[in-house]
């Protein structure tokens, strides 16, 4: 007689018997579900699959925040964000000529964007004062993200023009993407999924706090 896996199992350490966590197979010997049993996948019945909920992608898929043209009055999100309050717009810090804002569609937790207030496309269009503050905000952003989130590295850069991958090409923005060992793994490549353990509103609070604490 071999051991059977059917029925409650006895814990050899405590002698407790507990229910097997696997849902019971309620099919009859012919493989049919009884009339009163819901089939797998019915509402309330576990289907054994993992899920990553990505509600922030819904707005992106629906085209929200995409400008209708190249001008500042064509729905440019980087022109309209500073007119909203910080929490609503996900703004981390406001400077004199530039500001730091969380990316609404982040590649990773803490994905910051540094933007000039002025609506212009190219980095070489910044004047000297904007260039200085743009650089200072990039450096302070690194320090704030390190303090708030402890990344091990960063990807920093600008996509200039739609051909180079700029999603909103008409308004310059520099990406600061914190990186951790193993943060991406296979998910973006195989699963076309980014894994984001923090919600944007929470991330904004901790990064904005850290921004005030660093020089
Ligand atoms: Zn703009």
Which helices and strands, and how do they pair?
Elements: E1 9-10, E2 17-18, H1 56-61, H2 77-80, H3 86-89, E3 91-94, E4 98-102, E5 112-116, H4 128-149, E6 153-157, E7 174-179, H5 187-191, H6 200-213
Antiparallel strand pairs: 1-2, 3-4, 4-5, 5-7, 6-7
The structure holds zinc ion.
Q: Your description of this structure?
A:
With 215 residues, this protein is of the alpha+beta class. The protein folds into two domains: 51 residues, no CATH class; 147 residues, HIT-like (HIT family, subunit A). 26% of the residues lie in helices and 13% in strands. The strands form two sheets. Strands 3-4-5-7-6 form a five-stranded antiparallel sheet. Helix 4 packs across helix 6. It is elongated, with a radius of gyration of 25 Å. The structure holds zinc ion. Zinc ion binds next to helix 2. The site of zinc ion has 6 residues, from helix 2.
Descriptors for this entry?
single chain; 215 residues; alpha+beta; HIT family, subunit A; 2 domains; five-stranded antiparallel β-sheet; two-stranded antiparallel sheet; 6 helices; 7 strands; 13% strand; disordered N terminus; binds zinc ion
